[in-house]
Write a structure and sequence with these properties.
The complex is a heterodimer of chains A (155) and B (241). Helix content of chain A is 13%, strand content 49%. Chain A is mainly β. Chain A has one domain (32-154). In chain A, the strands form two sheets. Chain A has a six-stranded antiparallel β-sheet, with no helix packed on it. In chain A, strands 1, 2, 5, 9 and 11 form a five-stranded mixed β-sheet that branches. The longest helix of chain A has 20 residues, at 2-21. Chain A is elongated. In chain B, 20% of the residues lie in helices and 56% in strands. In chain B, strands 1-2-3-4-5-6-7-10 form an eight-stranded antiparallel β-barrel. Chain B is elongated. Chain B has two helices and ten strands, in the order H-E-H-E-E-E-E-E-E-E-E-E. Chain B has two domains: 1-43; 49-239, Porin. The chains are: A mainly beta (155), B alpha+beta (241). Chains A and B meet through helix 1, strand 7 and strand 8 of A and helix 2, strand 5, strand 6, strand 7 and strand 10 of B.
Chain lengths: 155, 241
């Protein structure tokens, strides 16, 4: 009888202890995906990077400012809309405003129940107003968690 | 007073040595007889099929109720005792899950699972008269399951644009295979009734590809969990030979 009780107690303690230790919860994965826009200029048909000061950027219809008079900017990280297929950004430099419009397809990539989905994007087209910006073009249409230049903005 | 004669000592020593030399084969003979007896004993063949043991897992349903009320899993196993050393095992179980994550995402599934494998007893039991009832063993398993599952209320929150979207994916089907390393003990408590405890490390999960992969696989457990599993069984041994 003593042997049975010892066995039962030891087994129960070990099972409860190890089951508790084996519980894992929460998401520890970075799901933040942004589109990277490089700032460039063409000088005698040579592509050159542009470094700009006092850059202000925010999403259209969004109060959250992405860049607020930021100095020495040569690249912009722009979060695309995860639940819509169009994202618009106001970009100001030297007190001149432009609006960048991106059309994209959203690709839901399920990670896990805890993390949900990571949203990657496929850039369909981009356009801009031409107050200060001259043009914009897509160089890498797949927007994912790899930090590579997706579009080029020309001044 | 007698004096010590070196010649006498020498003669006596020689006599003792000769005597020892002469009786040495007798000791050898005794050792040989013992060895022969042992050999004869081990020559008695261990019957091949010694017994069948049926076990029911008690831990999973009880621990599940106490620690994770949204997970119900239960299993039973049958193993065959071969020569008191090898124990081929078939484990059959059923799991039913209704889990809601802290963000409100819900995962539901139910399905049966199978595992086959074998255990090896570490205890040297050469008693040919009866099948072994108490065991300390290690073994391996291969698991397989085919199941349907649903994912509901999966919310995509866009933190910058302040929008949310809720998606669901129902009637997904998946098949999965995996491997397990098992170690455990089993003790005979009353005549032919045994209690057993085992710990197992589950690894090498391979699943059919789905856009929405399952959170839990019946028989394997939580996909992104630690991979550890425990059983606490009660069983009945049917002795055969």
């Amino acid at each position: 009888m003593k042997r049975i009780l010892t066995f039962l107690s030891l087994g129960t303690i070990l099972t409860l202890f190890l089951t508790n230790c084996s519980n894992t919860q929460g998401c520890h994965q970075n799901l933040y995906v942004v589109m990277t826009a490089g700032l460039h200029t063409l000088h005698n048909d040579t592509l050159m990077s542009v470094i700009m000061d006092s850059v202000f950027v925010k999403g259209v219809g969004n109060d959250s400012i992405l860049y607020n008079n930021t100095q020495s900017v040569s690249q912009l990280s722009l979060p695309l809309q995860e639940n819509k297929n169009i994202s618009q950004f106001v970009i100001r430099s030297n007190a001149i405003y432009d609006t960048l419009t991106c059309y994209h397809t959203n690709i839901q990539q399920f990670i896990s129940l805890e993390c949900g989905c990571e949203i990657n994007f496929l850039l369909d087209s981009v356009k801009t107003t031409n107050h200060r910006i001259k043009s914009v073009q897509i160089v890498q249409k797949n927007v994912n968690n790899q930090s590579i230049e997706n579009i080029q903005i020309f001044y | 007073m007698s004096t010590i004669n070196p010649l006498k000592i020498f003669k006596s020593s020689i006599s003792v040595l000769i005597a020892l030399f002469l009786i040495q084969p007798c000791f050898g003979q005794a050792k040989k007889e013992k060895k022969d007896k042992k050999a004869k004993k081990s020559e008695i063949p261990q019957p091949f099929l010694r017994g069948i043991d049926v076990q029911v897992d008690l831990a999973s349903p009880i621990a599940g109720k106490l620690l994770s009320p949204d997970i119900f899993s239960s299993e039973a196993s049958v193993d065959v005792n071969l020569r008191n050393t090898w124990f081929p095992v078939w484990e059959l179980g059923y799991a039913s899950i209704n889990h809601t994550d802290q963000d409100g995402a819900q995962f539901t599934t139910s399905g049966a699972f199978n595992r086959i494998g074998f255990n090896i007893s570490f205890l040297k039991n050469k008693d040919v008269k009866k099948p072994v009832t108490s065991l300390f063993y290690a073994g391996i398993r291969v698991g397989y399951t085919s199941f349907n599952y649903n994912i509901n209320n999966l919310t995509i929150i866009d933190n910058y644009w302040h929008t949310t979207q809720t998606i669901s994916s129902t009637n997904n089907h998946a098949t999965a295979t995996w491997g397990e390393f098992v170690a455990g003990i089993r003790v005979d408590i009353i005549k032919n009734i045994t209690l057993g405890w085992s710990a197992r490390l589950k690894t090498g999960l391979s699943m059919s590809k789905n856009v929405y992969s399952p959170w839990y696989v019946p028989g394997f457990g939580i996909v992104n969990g630690s991979g550890w599993g425990f059983t606490y069984t009660i069983g009945y041994l049917i002795p055969l030979k």
